[in-house]
Amino acid sequence: MNQEITKIRRKLMTELDRERYEHTLGVMYTAASMAMCHGTDTEQALLAGLLHDCAKCIPGESKIKLCEKYHLNISEVERANPSLLHAKLGAFLAAKKYHVEDKAIINAIASHTTGRPHMSLLEKIIYIADYIEPGRPDLPNMEEVRHLAFRDIDRCLYRILEDSLVYLKSQGKPVDPMTEKTYDYYKIKLEKQ
């Protein structure tokens, strides 16, 4: 898989802007570190981390047109905020353009912005790595979140979801219903522990 990763890295270097490419490498290496810590497949984490934002630099209107062309559902929230489409479009492109056949990787890319109830370990890792990678500006509670990422992955996921919802609501930004469902699911899961 290392040759595959090298080939995709070269391609992404030309398709992403410099800042997004640097972020992508940060997510890739953070995801691999988390995979090692939590005892799961490191190569899956590397590839999912590398491709998680492969559709991020596509302009909003183009994202909508591509989703329509490939019959990917677009919610009202996504239509109003096309940047949210980069996860589902990225998952599609990972399969079609980058020839990724591993459903676990595709699912991790698809759920990395909103999360979803019953996330796999790889999905949690990519969601969290995207939030905590070293190049990210310090967000509220970042030190605690980074600590939890390597010790209690569900509590970490819940904390990020909670902080994200507080931020989006305080800014009057639209909230994807899947983010709320994911938050509710992990809140109940942690309360039962």
Describe the structure.
37% of the residues are buried. The protein has a single domain, classed as Orthogonal Bundle (Hypothetical protein af1432). Helices cover 69% and strands 0% of the residues. It is built from eleven helices and no strands. The protein has 193 residues and is mainly alpha-helical. The radius of gyration is 16 Å and the shape is globular. The longest helix is centred in the first third of the chain and has 21 residues.
Largest sheet: none
Count of runs of 4 or more consecutive helical residues? 11
The averaged pLDDT comes out at 95
Q: Could you name the CATH topology?
A: Hypothetical protein af1432
Series of secondary-structure elements, N-terminal to C-terminal: HHHHHHHHHHH
CATH homology superfamily: Hypothetical protein af1432
Total of domains: 1
- Uncertain segments: none
- The secondary structure category is mainly alpha
Shape: globular
CATH class, please? Mainly Alpha
Domain HD: 20-135
InterPro entries: Diverse_Catalytic_Enzymes (IPR051094), HD/PDEase_dom (IPR003607), HD_domain (IPR006674), HDIG_dom (IPR006675), YqeK (IPR005249)
Catalytic activity: P(1),P(4)-bis(5'-adenosyl) tetraphosphate + H2O = 2 ADP + 2 H(+)
Protein name: bis(5'-nucleosyl)-tetraphosphatase (symmetrical)
